[in-house]
């Protein structure tokens, strides 16, 4: 076959545009492609929900690739292993009593692949810069190219409509921050505001994560590290079981709400 450069360009542009247009109106829009966002998307898609996930960076996987301080291993506890090995098929080796270790590269790439295969439509290089709110409910996200954001260009964004939104943007809880900025102290937290992340304490951080994985404003849910940051709990470092459990938990909560 003789290759035509223009046909290659046309194939890329047309296929991308078709998918983007198809995903302007979804059941669930997820901000952030770290472990919690990917796990949430995986479970929701597997259950038949239409899901778009927006990730600012080129690579998907957030903080999972680098393990702990660039030692590319992650630790999970038994409950996390049930998801990592049981659901995703990632090898986990018991290092000592209940501390399982997995290769962070295998873990991240496998979860990403499983999420895609389950049907999550991932759009990388796109940043969430705002939310849509109607009658005090989140109704979607406002997105722009990450390159536009990085260059500081004054270019207006586009919008995605969704029945639920998940803030899985990690430590910075960027989507909840926008809601707090625009709506004031109306979050479903003790103070109505973002309570802020506390110092590293793996045991406490992991223990509080599932409780903190919840709806924080009508139709806006938090998952992963964003959950602890919003509710004033601890970070937990390179133990990742909670992130996967939080992703599954938020998926269950949304399934319950959306029916
Ligand atoms: O930080 P990240 O991996 O979040 P997570 O799923 O997992 C946290 C762990 O990695 C680690 C930890 C484990 O114990 O504490 O930190 O909660 O992934 C968040 C992703 O969101 C993207 C960001 O680039 C990263 O890949 N992100 C952040 N803000 C935006 C965004 C935004 N406004 N728009 C799009 N993507």
What is the alpha-carbon Rg in Å? 18 Å
The CATH superfamily is FAD/NAD(P)-binding domain
What percent of residues adopt helix (DSSP H or I)?
A: 40-55%
Distance between the termini: 49 Å
Class derived from helix and strand content: alpha/beta
CATH topology: FAD/NAD(P)-binding domain
Q: Which ligands appear in the coordinates?
A: ligand 48F
Query: How many strands in all?
Result: 11
Please provide a written account of the structure.
NAD(+) binds at residues 36, 55-56, 63, 128, 154-156, 225. Its cofactor is Fe(2+). GO terms for molecular function: isomerase activity. Belongs to the THI4 family. By secondary structure, the chain is α/β, with parallel strands linked by helices. The chain has a single domain (27-64, 105-258), classed as 3-Layer(bba) Sandwich (FAD/NAD(P)-binding domain). It is built from 9 helices and 11 strands. The chain has helices spanning 5-22, 35-46, 78-87, 104-118, 146-151, 174-183, 202-212, 225-231, 241-258, and strands at residues 25-31, 51-55, 73-76, 93-96, 99-103, 121-124, 126-134, 137-145, 158-167, 215-217, 220-222. A hairpin with a 2-residue loop joins strand 4 and strand 5 (99-103). Helix 3 crosses helix 9, helix 7 (202-212) crosses helix 8 and helix 7 runs parallel beside helix 9. It starts with a helix and ends with a helix. The model has no long low-confidence stretch (mean pLDDT 98). Ligand 48F binds next to helix 2, strand 2, strand 7 and helix 8. Ligand 48F binds at residues 31-37, 54-57, 62-64, 127-128, 168-170, 172, 174, 224-226, 235-237, 239-240, 243.
